[in-house]
Amino acid sequence: MTTRKIRSAVTRRGLLQAGAGVAGILATGRAPVYAQAQPKKLDFANILGAPDVGGIAMELFAKEITARGKGEVEVRFHGGTLLAKEMEIMNAVKAGNVAIGSPAGAAATVFPEMGVLLVPYLVKDYAQAYSIMNGKIGDTLDKQFQEKYKLKVLYYFDYGFRHFWTNGSAIVEPKDLRGKKIRVQLAKVFSDTINGLGGNAVPMAWGEVVSAAKQGVIDGGDLPVANIDALKIYEVAKYTSLTYHNYGPTCVVMNLEALFMDVGREAQSKVRNLIESVDNFESAKKLLEPKGMTVVQGNVEAFRKIAEQKVWPTYKSQFGALFDEIAAFKA
């Protein structure tokens, strides 16, 4: 389906009408007779589909909402076939031309308020992260997004903590980063992380990364384990070093008031289980070493200590009370 057809099929008025109808479905468990004859079609866009773990959960979400809608609503998931870029998807959702979408890895670009969660080692583990995102802080962010962007968060998810991938040598201690050219995403917090920990950050769009690694322009980069596997980083790098230096949450949003929340939590649980299952030393070794990489365990506490000294002060000043709340948060 083309973007033009999507935009003509899913108007803002149509989405609002669908929202009222679906809210009734979820409350009563049944669909009106007229709706059964003409189901409202809602399009859900993401840059990737299965086997991307986010795409797997999103497809589950779409199927479950359609099934529970009992003929009144049909959510059609488009993973990698509708709109090609995160910002393009989010602009379509904001405009009401697509009902549901995800900013994927560009969440902090779309929603700068989420940037505080990317500060290295501020979020310490998955238990803390999930409690933050499913609790008061996540609710506060959702409220801000509704007021500022007119978007409702259906659920938060992530692709996992970021780890270093390199070719020449592993990154076990902070000193191992010295002189290393590490590719980072374009948001400033990623450069601050690498430079603060002792490396040399090289901001670079993803499309350039593989060729840059092959040509020696960069010594490596950082990605979650699931993405290291999915993007076949083992073809250009020998080492994965588990350092857990950035947590990067993202979300699925809808251009409507609250609905689909129960199924959203089910999809959230699905993607979280898939991510956590590979993000540990033994699982990462089993996944990546048969593909030619060497997986090592980084000295996380040493990296954390440097991050607290070199990177935290700037972001503590920028985010104020929210930074302090996350830093003090107990899962």
Q: What is the gist of this entry?
A:
The chain is α/β, with parallel strands linked by helices and 331 residues long. It has helices spanning 3-9, 12-28, 33-37, 53-68, 86-95, 107-110, 126-133, 136-149, 188-197, 209-215, 225-230, 261-278, 281-288, 300-310, 312-319, 321-327; strands spanning 40-46, 73-79, 100-101, 152-158, 162-166, 181-184, 200-203, 220-223, 239-246, 249-254, 294-297. The protein is 47% helix and 18% strand.
Folded structure, characterized:
The protein is an alpha/beta fold and 331 residues long. It has 2 domains: 3-113 and 121-158 and 249-277, D-Maltodextrin-Binding Protein, domain 2 (3-Layer(aba) Sandwich); 162-247 and 280-324, 3-Layer(aba) Sandwich (D-Maltodextrin-Binding Protein, domain 2). Helices cover 47% and strands 18% of the residues. The protein has 16 helices and 11 strands. The protein has a 5-stranded mixed beta sheet with strand order 2-1-3-10-4, with helices on both faces. A 4-stranded mixed beta sheet has the order 8-5-9-11, sandwiched between helices. Helix 4 runs antiparallel to helix 12 (261-278) and helix 15 crosses helix 16. The longest helix is centred in the C-terminal third of the chain and has 18 residues, at 261-278. The chain starts with a helix and ends with a helix. The model is unreliable at 1-36 (pLDDT under 50).
